[in-house]
Amino acid sequence: MATNQSLKLQNTFRPNGRVFEVERSAAEHSAVVRMLLEDFDEPDLLVTIIPISIDTSDDTLAKVFEWATHHKNMPKPALDDDGDRDEVVTIQLASWDDEFFSDIDSETLYGILIATNYLDIKPLYDMAVQVVVNMVRGKSTKQIREILGITSDFTAEEEAAIRKETAWAYDGEEVPNETS
Amino acid sequence: MAASGDAASGDAAPDSQPNPADELSEAKVHAALAEGRNLVRHRQYSKALHAIMEAVYMCQCNPAGNGKTRHGKDKSCHISQCIGAVNSKDADALYKVAKIPCACGYSWPSCVRPLHMMALDALAECLDKAEQHTSAISTSLAMIRLDPASAVGYCRGAKILQYLLKNCSLASGSPVNRSVVTILRGDSNPPSAILLRRLLDRFIEHGLHNTEFYRRGPKSSFDVVLQMMAYKLKIGVARRDPVKAFPPEVLTMVFSLLNRTDISRCLRVSQRWHGAIMQDAILWADLRLGRPGNPGRLFPKFLLGHPGIKTFVLGNASAFQLTTAKLGCLLHTQPQLRQLYLDSGKPYGARQSADSTESPYRLNPHLTHLTLISFDMTATFEKLVQLNVSTLEVLDLINTGRQVNFVLRDCSLPNLRKLRIIEGHLHPSKEPLEMPLLEIGPIVNATPSLEQFHLDGVGVAWATSDSVWPSLSKLILGPNLRFSPLIGAIPSPYFIPPLSSNMRSIEILGSIPDIAFGALFTKLRLKPPYPMSNSFWSPIFEQGSPYLPKLEVFRCMAPALDPTLLRHIIEPAAKSDTLKVLDLAVVPRSTFPSVNPSNSANSTFEPVRDLPFALSENLHTLGLHDFNFYVDPTSRFGATSEFDGKPFLDWVDCFPNLHTVACYPGQWQRVDALIMQLIVHPKVKVIHQDCLKGVAWDEASILAEKHGVELHHTPNHMPVNWPMLEE
């Protein structure tokens, strides 16, 4: 099978979405696309524009396809492979991926998460989840708010009540006192 | 940002109403605005203002047209009220101000029609171009009062503020500087760019907050523009809240990768986070608590908030104080419960007894796994087991005392696949203090479907019974098992039913030969006299050998099996290359010459020569215990301090797919050298041993790391493979 075939994909979530022409081997990172290729006549798919509907911008999708194109030769997991989700914990970003994530803003990152979740592009999804997890892991409540730009809408009493309600479940561990 | 005006017209279109009269009036507004914009382009600002004002008053929210009263010309009350709100610490302050009348008492118009907003936007743009910056800001603030949830006003205001920031200078008197001074309420003169920049940041933050929090419809392009501005200005708020941004399955994924401490902190981030985490059914379905504190009266409330718990692990209940009431509450509130693991946390020798003989339990229709550690098997837990006998598939009773007999004697567990009974600590460091006798017969009767059986720390006796375990495939007999053959009417050496040909794994970890004989040669109907560990009886045992063609794991730490007997057990599985793990203790040297009379007196046991039937192509793990192949030429039985491990290395060479060795020769000098040879052996990747100490361990570790070998210090023997719920 020729690997230089390309597929056309268009985000129909908003009108006038850009039509992306993506190499087939890159687009196959998406389990959704692979399922489409299996279920439908290939010649049709190679001609028609495949509609996808994701609440994300064309620029974000462009990033997703940039990643897929760069990794087009990476082996793809089998469709019925449920995958061991525990593996995610140990993901080490390769230098290219590291750079890929370092120069995107969080809006794009979130868009990538939503898009890869929809398209089922597991490796990129797992990496994006990991980046979000790293924003939260090991941080105090106050730091989480600062990092993600969230304003607390709890009163001091409410926050203390939640702390009390859940404190018993956490190994009797002293949750560091955070003054805000 | 230049596109914002065009985007407004694009946005307005979908909201237009079908009413022809409305369409007509909207067309008029559009015409007036187009005229105004055209005039702006030709710098005819006063004419433009007139046209745009007409458009503003054409909105249907204002049927009286021009008749409505207007705010006085001096808008300073309006501006300072809004800017004050922007600078306040309350995130909702600007929204609140937008909903109340002006400080002077004037009621600003409120309207959600996009066209009205668009007209005001055109007005602000025109004023800005005409260098009436204060009025322009005032108009953009009026836009926020018009509809605080719309992003248009914030975009326009931010754009004006950005222009002022760029163009304000130290020279006083310019229109820009005058406006800045007014906006900053005379806080600084000459105007402070820092204060203005701070105001701009706060203004956009309020915009992002209000448009996100109070947004009614889908995002408009103005929301995106506002977001982009925030990014360009590197405003913290631009980092969006993931809990708002993500669909639930992505959030579940994120939260599932955090530990409980992180989750407890996340719970307090905001109401939204709290709600998202508490409602995440998947996150709470698997609740594993290490050593929780005492929740007291919070426990019922907590459980009612999470009615979908499927796995509940209580790793150490010593602080939690598991009472009958708490257990009852758990069982009553959790109909989905599948796996229950309770460890009282008491050291061995002390158990927690239930505080009540009442049993406020119900049947949990899905409960399949039950683990009880260091609890007295009195009425409370007896009831728990008996209520769920029909669903239980895995039962784990650790250090539950002699009542085990009574609990299991009278019940039937038709679906039980996996049973573990250990008296003593889970990780025994010393012998159990007491050794309850366990009658296996009634247990066999009660568990016809049993597949895996793990027993340790009890005295066993085989009460006469014809019951069998036809499905049993895995048997583990722990190191602290004792044999009590004299219980019951007929003394019997067999304590488990005959092994079927389904056996895949047999691990006998104790050193008592009678246990090994009693477990393996159960087909024997003739009862040899006790004690039996005598090679004289070998031919008789041969008759009673089980046929185990599917055997994958065979471990026997008891020096019970001479090559003849071992051959009966492992040869069928080794021949078909099924055998994967072989871990043996060598029979004491003195007994070997008698079973190998053909060998000369000087030769001793050599695995390559004596165990040729063990060669399984797929064998990957090989272990040998209590060996020393050194033969003193001068004295056959003389004590020796020499050590020879070479034959073990030769044996290792025989297995093409071997990667793991367990090397436990015992206390000899120069055992270290053997381990070093194993480390550099090309096939060996994992080593279990317990003889390296001090400097020798350090040296071996360095060597192992260099050769990519996992070197483990594993006391006594390799661990058993019995996957636990809490792992």
TrEMBL record, chain A:
Pfam families: Skp1, Skp1_POZ. Residues 122-169 form the SKP1 component dimerisation domain. It comes from the Eukaryota. Pathway: Protein modification; protein ubiquitination. InterPro entries: SKP1 (IPR016897), SKP1-like (IPR001232), SKP1-like_dim_sf (IPR036296), SKP1/BTB/POZ_sf (IPR011333), Skp1_comp_dimer (IPR016072), Skp1_comp_POZ (IPR016073). Residues 17-73 form the SKP1 component POZ domain. SUPFAM superfamilies: POZ domain (SSF54695), Skp1 dimerisation domain-like (SSF81382). Keywords: Ubl conjugation pathway. GO terms for biological process: ubiquitin-dependent protein catabolic process. The keyword Membrane does not apply. PANTHER family: SKP1. Essential component of the SCF (SKP1-CUL1-F-box protein) E3 ubiquitin ligase complexes, which mediate the ubiquitination and subsequent proteasomal degradation of target proteins. Controls sulfur metabolite repression, probably by mediating the inactivation or degradation of the metR transcription factor. Belongs to the SKP1 family. Component of the SCF (SKP1-CUL1-F-box protein) E3 ubiquitin ligase complexes. This is E3 ubiquitin ligase complex SCF subunit. It comes from Chaetomidium leptoderma. The lineage of its organism: Eukaryota, Fungi, Dikarya, Ascomycota, Pezizomycotina.
TrEMBL record, chain B:
Residues 1-25 are annotated as: Disordered. Residues 1-13 have a biased composition (Low complexity). SMART domains: FBOX. Coiled coil: none annotated. Residues 240-287 form the F-box domain. It comes from the Eukaryota. Signal peptide: none annotated. PROSITE patterns: FBOX (PS50181). This is F-box domain-containing protein.
